[in-house]
Write a structure and sequence with these properties.
By secondary structure, the chain is mainly β. Helices cover 6% and strands 53% of the residues. The chain has a 22-stranded antiparallel beta barrel. A five-stranded mixed β-sheet has the order 3-8-9-6-7.
């Protein structure tokens, strides 16, 4: 689907500049452009999953849209802050900057966002969506204009990950007229954020420089993001969008959490690892060509490439890591190794450990994806046929070096893996429209081929799988204000390359993750300025793949049956339609109730078939809080002032399969219930009358609450109170 925008081409010099810019982006000369000097209007369109708000009613399923105004007014610091404002989403902090968000949908484990499909302008964002769909990279939220979340049957159009949902981040469309924006933000914990946007003549440059301290001691990050986007008409009925992005991050950040005793003794900011570093760079480019062949037929083709590299040097991966166990301490008269001393809350010094391990990763991902849409009236029934295909390849190079000093940047090579994944997909759906009723049957095919080679031993292996994925969505409009929708689709998530093929080249029989996803809901706009969406959902897994730790397999990969059921509610109430109010009040809510997130059959190891201790039928799945709520209330004045207060509430959740409620004495921090927490946020904006200037201030976590957000590899804690302020000026 497409969101339509109108750009005005004014003069020959502007066209010349566009041609030069496009030549640079493409590395070749642009074809003939008319020398017509008079003004004329050309309709250019950008690719998106949902399209504009007035077209989302066509979708046969639930969805949310966070638009530019909402993101700007809220001054979200991280992707996590933004996504919490959509129903159904559980997003977990990690380092405090949202650089590696953990996103889960409708109860699915949010760890590394592996159950989500992340897109940017409709193009895969993850560096290995088929072979290793883990988010160790995420672009800054600042450069996005809109976020679209799709959760219904239409998810099947955008595989491969369809057990959860689709999040599509939309970048701003380049303007025809020259324009610029500068936003500067500063706050406590050494936070600074400079964001500039410059554009005109169809070309736009976004630059972000963000830095500051993280949630705990010895954690700080610096990142720069440069995004270039160009949009032009290359021939009558044909438009081209070219994009280039460079992202670079340098962080001091550890992988390990802390133990219960360390938390009790040293507090929520404690982190002893001062030599752990994370450096990454991503280069990406993509092209979208759209050809409007006639009034009924449109062909859109996406071509994309990205290269991602990551060097993470660290002295511990979890609280149970034995890497530094050659170091001993005298604790209460008893000699303890590094790991045991941490469990007892002793103040360890990682510099005593003559070890530092580097996990070095490089990924290349590229593909092409044409999609054709044909609007028709077959047998007198209005409809739209959509057919698409994808050819995709990703190559992973994974190495590990073990150094012998606390600051080593080289060492003994202990891992050298090459992993190659090739994927081919096809998709076909047809939307039928009969009066106020529409229904959309669809079918997707995924075929995936994996190879793995151990360069240290020469061992290699391969595995492949294919899957047919049907879907059906329906909607009925009672009126322009009320719509009923329903959907069912077969959810699918492929196993990772490393799960299918072990380091000796042997193939493991790991089934794909499969689910039957159903939903029923209603969308209503009872009056101007008022809307409400209510969705009932049920995700029934024939086979769910789950792992209790993401740090080197300390908990084996497991699979079994699972069931998720619940309700989502999104509502907005405002007095926008009432004229002459000095202050216009409004309120907004995103609420999720998940009464069921249950293990339906005992989970077993995929390699041996042995039962996973504690993963018993009837237990609640980890990291699936029953209640999630983000609500805000505020008011806008005629003088340009906007003030709002926000409440974020996350219910209790278990950290392990056994539903352990109390952390064991001298525990490793990976077990025990994560208690519910709530925080208050406040923001004030002043759009200075008669000036292109906005001044703002925010306070996040007003009460400075201390709380735990994760126990996957030890306790991770949330950031303290953050006070920030700044200005935005537009030219």
């Amino acid at each position: 689907m497409f969101a339509r925008l109108t750009l005005i081409h004014r003069s020959l010099p502007a066209r010349g500049l566009r041609a030069v810019a496009l030549s640079i982006l493409l590395g070749c000369t642009v074809g003939h452009v008319s020398a017509e000097t008079s003004s004329r209007i050309t309709e250019l369109e950008i690719v998106s999953v949902l399209g504009e708000r007035d077209r989302t009613a066509e979708l046969p399923g639930s969805h949310d849209v966070l638009d530019a105004e909402e993101l700007i007014e809220l001054h979200v610091m991280t992707t996590s802050e933004a996504l919490r404002k959509a129903a159904g989403i559980n997003v977990r902090d990690e380092e405090g900057f949202g650089l590696r968000p953990n996103i889960g949908l409708r109860g699915l484990n949010p760890t590394r966002s592996t159950k989500m499909l992340l897109l940017e302008d409709g193009i895969p964002l993850a560096y290995a969506p088929y072979g290793d769909n883990a988010s160790y990279y995420h672009p800054p939220i600042d450069r996005f204009d809109r976020i679209e979340i799709l959760k219904g049957a239409a998810v099947n159009q955008y595989g491969p990950q369809t057990v959860g949902g689709v999040i599509n981040y939309i970048t701003p469309t380049p303007a025809e007229e020259p324009s610029a924006m500068l936003r500067a933000t500063a706050g406590n914990r050494d936070y600074t954020n400079l964001h500039g946007r410059f554009g005109g003549y169809g070309l736009q440059l976004d630059v972000v420089d963000k830095r500051g301290d993280g949630a705990r001691d010895n954690i700080d990050s610096t990142l720069q993001d440069l995004n270039l986007k160009y949009l032009t008409e290359i021939a009558p009925g044909q438009t081209l969008i070219a994009r280039f992005n460079r992202y670079q991050e340098s962080s001091d950040i550890t992988y390990s959490g802390i133990t219960d005793a360390e938390l009790a003794r040293f507090g929520h900011r404690y982190n002893p690892f001062d030599n752990d570093t994370f450096d990454t760079e991503r280069l990406g480019t993509s092209f979208t060509h759209r050809w409007q062949a006639n009034d009924r037929t449109t062909l859109t083709t996406n071509a994309y490439f990205s290269r991602f590299s990551r060097d993470w040097w660290r002295q511990a991966s979890t609280t149970t890591d034995s890497q530094c166990n050659g170091v001993t301490y005298l604790v209460d008269g008893t000699v303890r190794n590094f790991q045991a001393a941490r469990a007892l809350g002793y103040g360890v010094d990682p510099d005593d450990c003559n070890s530092r391990q580097g996990r070095l990763r490089e990924y290349e991902s590229y593909g092409i994806e044409p999609t054709v849409t044909w609007r028709h009236a077959f047998l007198g029934i209005d409809g739209a046929l959509t057919a698409g295909a994808r050819a995709h390849r990703e190559v992973q190079e994974r190495r590990q070096f073990n150094g012998s000093t606390p600051t080593a940047k080289n060492g003994t090579r202990v891992e050298d893996n090459e992993r190659d994944t090739r994927a081919y997909a096809g998709y076909l759906e047809n939307r039928f429209e009969i009066g106020n009723l529409s229904f959309t049957p669809g079918l997707r095919l995924e075929h995936i081929e994996n190879d793995r080679r151990n360069a240290l031993t020469g061992a290699e292996g391969d595995a492949d799988l294919s899957e047919w994925l049907p879907s059906l969505g329906m909607s009925y409009s009672f009126s322009e204000q009320v719509q009923l929708f329903a959907g069912v689709h077969r959810g699918f998530a492929p196993p990772r390359n490393e799960d299918l093929i072990d380091n000796s080249g042997l193939s493991t029989d790991v089934d794909a993750e499969e689910s039957l996803n159903l939903e029923l809901g209603v969308r209503a706009q009872p009056s101007a300025g008022t809307s409400i969406d209510i969705t009932l959902f049920r995700n029934d897994f024939d086979n769910q793949i789950s792992v209790g730790s993401i740090a080197g397999g300390s908990t084996p990969l497991a699979e079994g049956e699972a069931l998720y059921q619940g309700v989502e509610v999104t509502a907005y109430v405002g007095a926008d339609a009432i004229a002459d109010l000095r202050w216009v009040p409004y309120a907004q809510m995103a609420y999720t109730w998940l009464p069921t997130a249950d293990i339906e059959s005992n989970f077993r190891r995929v390699d041996t078939g042995a039962l996973i201790p504690g993963a018993e039928s009837g237990n609640r799945l980890p990291y699936a809080p029953e209640h999630l709520l983000t609500a805000r209330a505020g008011a806008r004045s005629q003088s340009g002032i906007d003030v709002h207060v926000e409440l974020v509430l996350v219910d209790d959740q278990y950290a392990d399969f056994a539903n352990t409620e109390s952390a064991p004495q001298n525990g490793n921090g990976q077990l025990g219930e994560i208690s519910s927490y709530h925080i208050w946020n406040v923001a004030v904006n002043w759009h200075v009358p008669g000036m292109p200037l906005t001044v703002f201030a925010t306070v996040k976590n007003v009460a400075d609450e201390d709380y735990i957000v994760d126990r996957t590899r030890g306790i991770l804690t949330a950031p303290p109170r953050l006070v920030q302020g700044g200005f935005e000026v537009r030219f």
